Amino acid sequence: MTTAPSAMIDLRSDTVTQPTPSMRQAMQRACVGDDVFGEDPSVRLLEEEVADRLGTQAALFVPSGTMGNQLAIGVQTRKGDEIIVGQGAHCAWYESGAASALWGVQAVSVGHDGCFDGEHVSAAVKPRADWYPQTRLVAVENTHNRAGGRVWRLEQLASVLEASRRHGLSCHMDGARIWNAAVALGVTEKRIATGFDTVSVCFSKGLGAPVGSALCASHALIEQARRLRKRLGGGMRQAGFLAAAARFALQQHRERLVRDHDNAKALARIVASAKGAQVDLEAVQTNIVMVDTPTIAAEQIEVAARAKGVLVAVFGAHRIRLVTHLDVEETAQRGGQIVAEVIETLQRLHGE
Asked: What is the pTM assigned to this prediction?
C-alpha cells in the first residue's frame, strides 16, 4: 500500500483531506463518553445538529457512508425485495454488494447520468405477483459521484417522491455530498431532504472531517438502525473525538464549498483545453470533474501525472476523475495544468 507524499497535489478524492489545526483542537477539547451506552455528549450534540439541519426527528452517527446507506436499506426492506436506484449509484457500485449480502435485496438501475424521475420509478415497479420481487425502496444519490458530482433538480426529487408515494415505496437519499448540492442550488439541506424517509450524510468528504457519517430519519427508524449498527459492528465507544471533528467541519467548512466548486470549474476549463481531453464543462456542477481521453489509457495518465506530482483517480479505461477540496484550494489549478500537459504529451506520443 502506498501513501501520498505531502508535496503531491492530490486530486483523487475529497476524502483525502487532513484535519486542520483548529479541527484538531476541537477534537482534543471534546467531552466523551460511551456512545454504545448513549453517554457521549459530543456525539449527541452532533446528532441533534445534523438532524436539525436535515429536518428529521433524529440522527445516528456511524463510521462510514456505506454503513449509513446500508442501515437505511436494512430498516426499510425485507429479504427478496428490490430497490430502485440511479445508474451508477454508490449503494450498487461501491458497497461490496452489501445490499444483497446483508439484507438479501437486489437493485435495479433506472434513468441516465445518475438521475431519474417519477416516470422511471413507475416503469420500474414490479407487478404484484409471486414470481416478482417486491419493489420496496427508491434510493437517490445527491450529488452523484459517478455522474461527476451532478446535482438533482428539486423538481426531479419532487417527481420521484410523488411517484414513490403513489406506489407505496419508501425513499432514501444518499446525501454523502448533500452539502455540495445545497451550496450549488443555494438552498438548505432541509429543502433538499424534505419528503425522504431516510437521508445519509458524510462528514469526511467535502467538509473535511477525518471520519464519520450520519443517518437521519424518524425516531422509530433510528431506533431500528441503532440495533442494526450494533449488529454490523458500528457501535463506537468514546467516539466524541470524531464527532467533534465532524461538528467542527459542519460549522466551519460548509460555506467554503463554493470555493471548491469554483476551483473545479476553473480546473475543468484548463484540462478541457488539452488536445486529447474531453470534458463536459456544463456537467461540472460541484467539485468533481470527469475527463475522458478516448485515445489514451487512463492508467497511463495516472502514472505520468503521479511522476509529476499530481494524483488522479482512474474511473474507467479512458476516464479519470479530478476532485477539488480544501487541501488543494491553492494548488488545484496548477494540478489541472500538469494534468493537461500530461495528456497533451501522451497524445503526441500516440501520434494523433
From this structure: 0.95
